[in-house]
UniProtKB/TrEMBL annotation:
<feature type="short sequence motif" description="'KMSKS' region">
    <location>
        <begin position="270"/>
        <end position="274"/>
    </location>
</feature>
<feature type="binding site">
    <location>
        <position position="214"/>
    </location>
    <ligand>
        <name>Zn(2+)</name>
    </ligand>
</feature>
<dbReference type="Pfam" id="PF01406">
    <property type="entry name" value="tRNA-synt_1e"/>
</dbReference>
<feature type="short sequence motif" description="'HIGH' region">
    <location>
        <begin position="31"/>
        <end position="41"/>
    </location>
</feature>
<dbReference type="Pfam" id="PF09190">
    <property type="entry name" value="DALR_2"/>
</dbReference>
<dbReference type="InterPro" id="IPR015803">
    <property type="entry name" value="Cys-tRNA-ligase"/>
</dbReference>
<keyword id="KW-0067">ATP-binding</keyword>
<dbReference type="GO" id="GO:0006423">
    <property type="term" value="P:cysteinyl-tRNA aminoacylation"/>
</dbReference>
<keyword id="KW-0648">Protein biosynthesis</keyword>
<dbReference type="InterPro" id="IPR024909">
    <property type="entry name" value="Cys-tRNA/MSH_ligase"/>
</dbReference>
<dbReference type="GO" id="GO:0004817">
    <property type="term" value="F:cysteine-tRNA ligase activity"/>
</dbReference>
<keyword id="KW-0963">Cytoplasm</keyword>
<feature type="binding site">
    <location>
        <position position="273"/>
    </location>
    <ligand>
        <name>ATP</name>
    </ligand>
</feature>
<keyword id="KW-0479">Metal-binding</keyword>
<comment type="similarity">
    <text>Belongs to the class-I aminoacyl-tRNA synthetase family.</text>
</comment>
<dbReference type="InterPro" id="IPR056411">
    <property type="entry name" value="CysS_C"/>
</dbReference>
<feature type="domain" description="Cysteinyl-tRNA synthetase class Ia DALR">
    <location>
        <begin position="346"/>
        <end position="405"/>
    </location>
</feature>
Length: 475
């Protein structure tokens, strides 16, 4: 089956054909680093990490560009409230972003350009828009520059709107606008903001508007036409609409596909920083393991709304623990195998069908269920094939606990792991000895003590084995 993806611009699922055979260029909008990322922010990173993994598994050479918006009105406002320089504020939360997508096993982009590092490219693009009649300098001497939406007849094509039905653009002070729907390409500097947050330009000192940043950076690193532009659905309008207008107005073909992941909501409302810190990634991974949070996000289709709750998250964690448990038991019996080179046809079909992770996860669970039946019979070719298949599917989803980064995060140093393993095994030997002399009270006391410490004991045909309990089981 040919890979098919939903394209927001055409509102249809289409066959994916890259601009350059065998190569794929992806640009997805990074965060405005104004604060610590929450689960809603990191969802996009997980979605496009899975897309990248599947494209690479399908034989493509993939280039991923994901920007960092490190100059923007919210950054200036929040840094002023904290009394720290805007650039220090931005860098602090840029590092927090990197931590968040690293802790969730997202591979870093091929390149991650910062907005402040591409001011010359933005100025050049704005100059061309002015020269071609699609932008104008505000006549009030403010130094503002605006895109003239009525000068570009295709404006509204991505979001399927008519200009007359749109509300005023709220990305800048309306001073000097010809039309309230015109959006800012450049914001003239005022004494209300730090001078360090401004750069010289032909029309006056100032800073770039939000939308021009991505047009400049996508064009610089991926060329005038590339394969996929992505981001959260909330960016479709006005951000991506404005990017498309700017770039195509200067003659670029821009993106062939527009991919938008749905939002993560809480109580039916878009997750936002105003909801508090409970869903901040750093706090959530104190409740469940990072790999379990990733599984929770992957199990939903990227175009379906994820209704976040800790109850749903913990249920997903238990579901993943069943997969994890099978792998541990199968490795114990077989000694371990490498991930399969070939995956189940049903899994591949699901992934090729607009990145259908729910159906792919269902195939994964069915395979694990079959594998659990094989474990009791000991080592076999079929068990090894099943384990290899499970690992291969998990690798595509970024969830293989025996692969990086997860294998290096089992907790503690190698020496400490060996010590803990030895101590638990010693207690299990005491328990087994008690059972053999029919002192079941002593055997149960060992088991209860281990359970109180968060260690789950499972009796198998190969002998007792132990694992750490999930957060809710150990509390």
């Amino acid at each position: 089956m040919t890979l098919r993806l939903y394209d927001t611009a055409t509102a249809a699922v289409r066959d994916f054909e890259p601009v350059h055979p065998g190569k794929v260029g992806i640009y997805h909008c990074g965060l405005t680093v104004q604060g610590a990322p929450h689960v809603g922010h990191i969802y996009k990173e997980v979605v496009f990490d899975v897309l990248r993994r599947w494209l690479e598994r399908s034989g493509y050479e993939v280039t991923v560009i994901a920007n960092v918006t490190d100059i923007e009105d919210k950054i200036l406002a929040k840094s002023a409230d904290r009394g720290v320089p805007w650039w220090a504020h931005a860098y602090e939360f840029e590092r927090e972003l990197h931590w968040a997508y690293d802790v969730l096993g997202c591979r870093p982009p091929t390149y991650e350009p910062r907005a402040t590092g591409h001011i010359p490219e933005m100025i050049e693009l704005i100059e061309q828009l002015i020269a071609d009649g699609y932008a104008y300098v505000a006549p009030d001497g403010s130094g503002d520059v605006y895109f003239d939406v009525k000068a570009w007849p295709a404006y509204g094509a991505l979001s399927h709107q008519k200009i007359d039905d749109m509300e005023a653009a709220e990305d800048a002070d309306p001073r000097g606008k010809r039309d309230p729907r015109d959006f800012a390409l450049w914001k003239g500097w005022t004494e209300a903001t730090p001078r360090t947050a401004s750069w010289p330009a032909p029309w006056g000192r100032g800073r770039p508007g939000w939308h021009i940043e991505c047009s400049a950076m996508a064009g610089k690193y991926l060329g005038e036409e590339f394969d996929i532009h992505g981001g959260g659905l909330d960016l479709r309008f006005p951000h991506h609409e404005n990017e498309l207008a700017q770039s195509t107005a200067v003659g670029q073909k821009f993106a062939r596909f527009w991919m938008h992941n749905a939002l993560v909501t809480t109580a039916g409302e878009k997750m936002s920083k105003s909801m508090g810190n409970s869903a901040v990634v750093r706090n959530v991974v104190e409740r469940v393991r990072p790999i379990e949070l990733r599984y929770y996000l992957v199990q939903s289709h990227y175009r379906s709304v994820v209704e976040f709750s800790f109850e749903a998250l913990e249920e997903a964690a238990k579901s993943f623990q069943r997969i994890d448990g099978f792998i541990a038991r199968a490795v114990e019996v077989t000694g371990g195998v490498e991930p399969a080179a070939e995956l189940p046809a049903e899994f591949e079909t699901a992934m090729d069908d607009d990145l259908g992770t729910p159906a792919a996860v269902a195939v994964l669970h069915n395979t694990v269920r079959d594998g659990n039946k094989l474990v009791a019979d000991g080592d076999s070719v079929l068990l090894r094939e099943t384990l290899a298949s499970v690992r291969g599917m998990l690798g595509v989803l970024g969830l293989d606990p025996l692969a990086e980064p997860w294998v290096s995060r089992t907790g503690g140093s190698d020496e400490l792991t060996e010590v803990v393993d030895g101590l638990v095994k010693a207690l299990l030997e005491q328990r087994q000895a008690a059972r053999e002399r029919k002192d079941f009270a002593a055997a149960d006391a060992v088991r209860d003590r281990l359970k109180a410490l968060g260690v789950v004991v499972e009796d198998t045909p190969q002998g007792p084995r132990w694992s750490l309990a999930s957060t809710d089981e150990g509390s």
